[in-house]
């Protein structure tokens, strides 16, 4: 048992660079990613609190003046990654992408504080971090929900982190690829292309990115003009939980929490508009094309993580969750295997992802303890048997994508040691 823990720590330390950590040490992701970094910080908190805080601090060093925290920070500009820093052409102090990612920092920070002794110097550092996270959340509220509906939009599939999920098939089909588009993918040279997004996906990712760039990433303009604008239930669940955790942190540090408190109330009410009572499931909304999106993605169940005070809805969800793919040997598949667009091995179109299991495990903790424990046990077993890979087949457990994957190692530590 000890060896697995030792290996998880070694994985994180092996991927660590100057004050930040790569998602993996192969050539696939040679930069700092937003939500990866947050999970990584949680992993560090089990053996080096200063590394955990430094990871978060470095990520926030890349925060834009308006509050946005980019999805990628290019600390090292000499890599083959595409789209690289010149393709994005933006950043504040650090070259970055021009979009964000699921805001889990507040939740992770709260987890870290709840279980660690903090010294005075660290407390000061944490207060600064909390102020920056507050600015980040206020940026979401101001620019990604201009009508104050309580639900925020993402303007690029990359913002979800589940890049090529079938959830985006409908809105992505509507994106006309830019004429004479020229770029060179690097990811499919490192990883088996059958396990990565398709070329047509990349054509559209780059087209959407170029359009955002055309508007110089001006947050008001791109909300209206992005070729992609979706209110995703998974993303909003993460944001709701993060707002609740931020509220607690603000309270603890005597900082103003009125705005966040008000927004939580609107979200709690309006998130229910994404609930289909008949089916007992949540759905997402394509704002750009005015269409509801019903795709059986595991991310729809992140609502459990958001801790809605609705017992009957939660119970209904749990009942449906138990039918997601428990018949398969490994769970949870990112997409329900019976769905027409499920693909066993392609990135976010079917494989099991450790962070998804983590969200669900956490979400079930105070609702169905036995089920929650089962997920934790199965996830730990899979990682110990297959290694800290990026994703896994739900049918065979076949490990895929990058090996030495940081968040798989980091979340292993949390599952095993908390
Ligand atoms: C990638 O490069 O595949 C990332 O998921 C984009 O953020």
- The rounded distance between the terminal residues' Cα atoms is 15 Å
Sheet with most strands: 3 strands, antiparallel
Question: What pattern of helices and strands is seen along the backbone?
Answer: HEHHEHEEHHHHHHHEHHEEEEHHHHEEH
Strand order of the largest sheet: 5-8-9
Number of distinct helices: 18
Helical content class: 40-55%
Class per helix and strand makeup: mainly alpha
Percentage of residues in DSSP E strands: 5-15%
Please count the beta strands (DSSP E, at least 2 residues each).
Answer: 11
Mean pLDDT rating: 97
Bound molecules: (2R)-2,3-dihydroxypropanoic acid
Shape descriptor reads globular
Computed over alpha carbons, the radius of gyration is: 20 Å
Question: Which regions contain 5 or more consecutive residues with pLDDT less than 50?
Answer: none
Can you put this structure into words, describing what you see?
The chain is mainly alpha-helical and 418 residues long. A 3-stranded antiparallel β-sheet has the order 5-8-9, with helices on one face. Strand 3 and strand 4 form a beta hairpin. Helix 3 packs parallel to helix 6 and helix 6 packs across helix 12. The radius of gyration is 20 Å and the shape is globular. The model has no long low-confidence stretch (mean pLDDT 97). Bound molecules: (2R)-2,3-dihydroxypropanoic acid. (2R)-2,3-dihydroxypropanoic acid binds next to loops. The site of (2R)-2,3-dihydroxypropanoic acid has 4 residues, from loops.
């Amino acid at each position: 048992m000890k060896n697995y823990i030792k290996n998880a720590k070694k994985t994180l330390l092996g991927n660590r660079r100057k004050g930040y950590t790569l998602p993996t040490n192969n050539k696939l992701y040679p930069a700092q990613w937003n939500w990866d970094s947050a999970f990584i910080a949680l992993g560090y908190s089990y053996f080096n609190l200063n590394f955990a805080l430094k990871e978060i601090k470095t990520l926030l060093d890349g925060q834009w003046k308006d509050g946005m925290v980019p999805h990628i920070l290019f600390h090292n500009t000499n890599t083959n990654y595409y789209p690289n820093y010149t393709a994005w052409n933006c950043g504040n102090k650090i070259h970055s992408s021009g979009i964000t990612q699921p805001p889990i920092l507040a939740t992770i920070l709260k987890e870290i504080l709840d279980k660690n002794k903090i010294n005075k110097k660290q407390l000061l550092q944490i207060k600064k971090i909390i102020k920056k996270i507050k600015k980040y959340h206020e940026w979401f509220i101001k620019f990604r929900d201009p009508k104050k509906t309580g639900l925020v939009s993402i303007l690029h599939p990359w913002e979800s982190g589940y890049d090529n999920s079938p959830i985006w098939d409908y809105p992505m089909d509507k994106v006309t690829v830019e004429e004479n588009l020229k770029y060179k993918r690097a990811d499919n040279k490192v990883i088996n292309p059958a396990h990565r997004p398709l070329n047509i996906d990349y054509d559209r990712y780059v087209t959407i990115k170029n359009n955002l760039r055309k508007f110089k990433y001006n947050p008001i303009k791109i909300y209206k003009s992005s070729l992609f604008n979706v209110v995703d239930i998974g993303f909003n669940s993460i944001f709701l939980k993060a707002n609740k955790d931020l509220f607690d942190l603000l309270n603890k540090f005597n900082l103003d929490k009125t705005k966040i408190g008000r927004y939580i109330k609107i979200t709690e009410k309006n998130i229910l508009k994404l609930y289909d009572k008949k089916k007992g499931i949540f759905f997402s909304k394509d704002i750009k094309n005015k269409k509801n999106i019903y795709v059986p993605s595991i991310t729809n169940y992140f609502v459990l993580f958001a801790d809605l005070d609705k017992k009957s809805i939660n119970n209904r969800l749990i009942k449906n969750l138990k039918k997601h793919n428990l018949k398969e040997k490994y769970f949870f598949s990112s997409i329900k295997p019976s769905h027409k667009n499920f693909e066993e091995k392609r990135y976010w179109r079917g494989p099991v992802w450790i962070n998804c299991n983590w969200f669900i495990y956490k979400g079930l903790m105070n609702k169905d303890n036995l089920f929650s424990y089962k997920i934790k046990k199965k996830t730990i077993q899979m990682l110990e048997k297959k290694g800290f890979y990026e994703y896994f087949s739900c049918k065979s457990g076949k490990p895929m994508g990058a090996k030495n994957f940081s968040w798989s190692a980091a979340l292993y530590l949390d599952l095993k040691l908390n």
